[in-house]
Amino acid sequence: MVSKERIAAGGLIHSARRPTIPGSPQSVADLLAPIVERTPDADALVSRHARIRYAELDRQANRAAHTFFSLGLGPGDRIAASIGNHSELVIALLGAMRIGAIWVGINRALAPAEKAYMLADSGARLFLAEPEMAAEIEPIRGNLPDLQQIIVAEPGAVDSEWADRLTRASSEDRPRVEIDPFEPAAIAYTSGTTGRPKGAVHSQHNMLMPGAVARFVGRSGPDITVGYSLPMTILNVFILGPILAAQAGAKCVLMDRNEAVGIAEWIRKEQVVQFASVPATYHDLLTRPEIAQSDLDSLRQPGVGGATCPEEFRELFRKRFGLEVQIGFGLTEAPTSVSHTDPKGPSLTGSSGSALPHVELAIRSEEDRDVPRGQEGEICIGPSREGIWADVYTPMLGYWNQPEATAEALRGGWLHTGDIGVMDANGNLYVRDRRSDLILRGGANVYPAEVERVLHSDRRIAACAVLGIEDDRLGQRVAAAIQLESDAQMSAEEIRELCASQLARYKVPDRIVFVREFLRNSMRKILKRELVSLFDS
Known about the structure:
Elements: H1 4-9, H2 33-38, E1 43-46, E2 51-53, H3 54-70, E3 78-82, H4 87-98, E4 102-105, H5 112-122, E5 126-129, H6 131-137, E6 149-152, H7 161-167, E7 184-191, E8 197-203, H8 204-216, E9 226-228, H9 235-248, E10 252-254, H10 260-270, E11 274-277, H11 279-287, E12 301-304, H12 311-321, E13 328-331, E14 336-340, E15 354-355, E16 359-364, E17 377-383, E18 398-399, H13 403-409, E19 415-423, E20 429-433, E21 439-441, E22 444-446, H14 448-455, E23 461-471, E24 475-484, H15 492-500, E25 511-514
Parallel strand pairs: 1-10, 3-4, 3-5, 4-7, 5-6, 9-10, 9-11, 11-12, 24-25
Antiparallel strand pairs: 1-2, 7-8, 8-18, 13-14, 14-15, 16-17, 17-19, 19-20, 21-22, 23-24
Helix pairs in contact: 3-4, 8-9, 10-11, 11-12
């Protein structure tokens, strides 16, 4: 078991409460037990290379757990994985939960330097990766002293090292490990103001809350096929995909294509009912001529998140689905959504809806006092105080090895989001400003500080400012204003190449302008709002 002392040493805050989740297993380790008992032959996962029923998924998860044991891994050890949306990823995570390990999902789209940082920061002992991802890390293993093994897991390949080890696992029985659902179970990396990602630590209890609430409000059930094309190495996506589906006894479709035509094929073939993505994806689904609108007939719960929605898109959505776009507010630290609009209710421009039943939302001042309705303040999240969900929600345990950031985010018993918002008289939330100037590009989070850190690594750049500029399709695009050192020369293409060498492609600036000198305030901070007009043309 991971002791409270060990948690505290990592800067985490152990939950003083141990609530029971209504109508749900109490740990991800026990997630499959109810459905295996009721309907073992129901489809659990459908991916490009496999169709797995719940009883088989349970056995494979046990094999993964015993495989991890054979590799010398146990409770509290970090297991990192960089695999696409395939059954291998789901089996590995469930196996990790059954031995009390801590899961670290690493997005395949990240640059090698970004992957290496997460491996180093988490202290991962095992990296389970597709061949290309493993090849990126192998040459720099000397810089990762905690990383003991890299194992290749090639989706669909029966002769990959991971598949071979599963086949040779010592048992298909559930391992005898006592699981505490309130101890660290997963690290989800989210960028911060320093330009380096921070690891939000969640317990197995946290990971089960969104699915339990979805069942409570009628948004999941055994007849609702769930499909996701966003990367399931992102913990929020995994929670809303395989974990939510298993809590309901439903089928989860692991979509390995993220472009509109491929998504439409998955929806039509597997009759997906619940699918969530960003406006840009839905725009393409609804407008691409090669996609028949009958391909989307099974969708009864289309959801949108991750970016602002232009009115043109809202109208397109209304005509196709007869619903208002369902907008929510959520974050990695929650995890996932904490508010939603009602798709059958009136459209409230700019609203992110009201609090889901397990949480209470508050708008608080810099002095940590509630502000009156209609006034701006920081959006904070706490457990609901009434009904069957009273005090069931627990926030993240903190940021991995960052005690100061943890204390700041969890002060006063609230999860402080850093986002600025307003609550109206009816409890509807309006988000005014994203924390730290977060750029939402097509559903992907881009923090200016990350890009600026890379830009500043080149001595020719005297100063820079990265910001988001509005885009009808993607919500926002990444833009950079550059001030070069006197007599220095650098082209926009060289700047993009610099960023691409250290950052994921979606973080590379789409628009670049050069300025002679930046306007600054009295604190010498660059006035980013004054730069927006430079990108109008």
